[in-house]
Amino acid sequence: MRERTRIKLWSVGGGKGGVGKSIFTLGLGICLAQMGKKVILIDGDLGGANLHTLIGVRYPQVTLEDFLLRKVSRLEDIVLKTQFDNIGLICGADDILGAANPTYTQKIRLIQQIEDMPADFVLLDLGAGTSFNTLDLFNFSAGKIVVFTSQVTSLQNAYGFIKSALYRKLSRDYSKDEDVVNFLYQMGTKDTEVDLHSIRDLIEHLSSEPDKKVRLQRSLAEFQLFLLINMVKSNQDLKSAEIIQTVCRDFLSLEPQVLGHLAYDPAVETAVNQMTPFPIFQKKGKAAASLKAIASEFLVSNRLAPVMSTRAAPSPAF
Fold first, then answer.
1. Predicted confidence band of residue 88 (pLDDT cuts 50, 70, 90)
2. Looking at the domain assignment, is residue 315 inside a domain?
3. At 278, is the pLDDT very low, low, confident or very high (cuts 50, 70, 90)?
């Protein structure tokens, strides 16, 4: 067993709204802070930020708006102190025209400074949907967590989010190879020259071009992600992770690992309404206990494969 200090930046996504991404991000951050780690939470929902509300900050004095509009030069300058030791917060920008769609220059400046934040862990809470901005922030993170529930719509959205993020990454990696990019976006459609239904089919199709095949396999190996099942009420709900793993394996040639699950707990809704994070509101609650277990697994585990840092500069396709 060894502490996972290699990954500093973790993004939490999932595609569908209302599955608990923000609550999980905040809860994980609090548990890590209670274990002595310095944590910075970033609300990456650039169109409907609410992480500050969950942590009890009603009127943020500074937000990402100040950074995006260059009112401050460093991302570090907009980190707010919170009521919790070892936790800083960067509030999302949802009150300026265009905040949900930052320019190329703004986005590059943002991601170049994220990993330089003074913290042991930076947790990036992403908004719902599969916009390029959301996918790019997710892909930029070495640590990738997808949150979902056992509801059919949540499973569909979680898989759609993973697929979109992977295709976005591959289209960037192969930005100068028009044929491969075309194969990606024609995959599964009818009336195409090449019958491709999965990434495995594409790998086999590229067997005659070993260099491209090796590059594709390398890109897939880099795209490691972890699954978090939320609002679990029964053992049957836990099987939802197996569903995601199966479709990812069969169609995307990915092997996502299960980080853990959060039990359904009515105390969570109460805590949200009272603007009190639930690990503090009910320390002995089911969800809080689940979070502590996940945080321990997050810190000390030999099951999670090492992931390389993504410090390389973004490609022009970003």
1. very high
2. no
3. low
Using the structure block, give the residue that is written with the tokens 């994070």.
Answer: 277
The CATH number assigned to the domain holding 112 equals 3.40.50.300
Scanning 93-131, the segments in alpha helix (DSSP H) are 104-114
Cβ atoms < 10 Å from Cβ of 215:
17
Whole-angstrom Cα distance, residue 70 to residue 73? 6
CA distances from 245 to 95, 188, 240, 263, 317 (A): 38, 19, 9, 20, 29
Domain membership of residue 112 as a residue range: 9-299
Q: Which amino acid is at 172?
A: R
Which pTM was predicted?
0.86
Count of domains for the chain: 1
Q: Residue 201 corresponds to which amino acid?
A: D
Residue 313 lies in a domain: no
Domain membership of residue 307 (yes or no) is no
Residue whose tokens read 């569908």 = 16
Give exposure, 16-43, as e/b (b: 16+ Cβ within 10 Å).
Answer: beebbbbbbbbbbbbbbbbbebbbbbbb
| 1 is a domain residue | no
Q: What is the pLDDT of residues 164-197, one digit of tens each?
A: 999 999 999 988 888 888 888 888 676 666 778 8
pLDDT in tens, 292-318: 888 888 786 534 444 444 444 444 444
CA gap 274, 270 in Å, rounded: 6
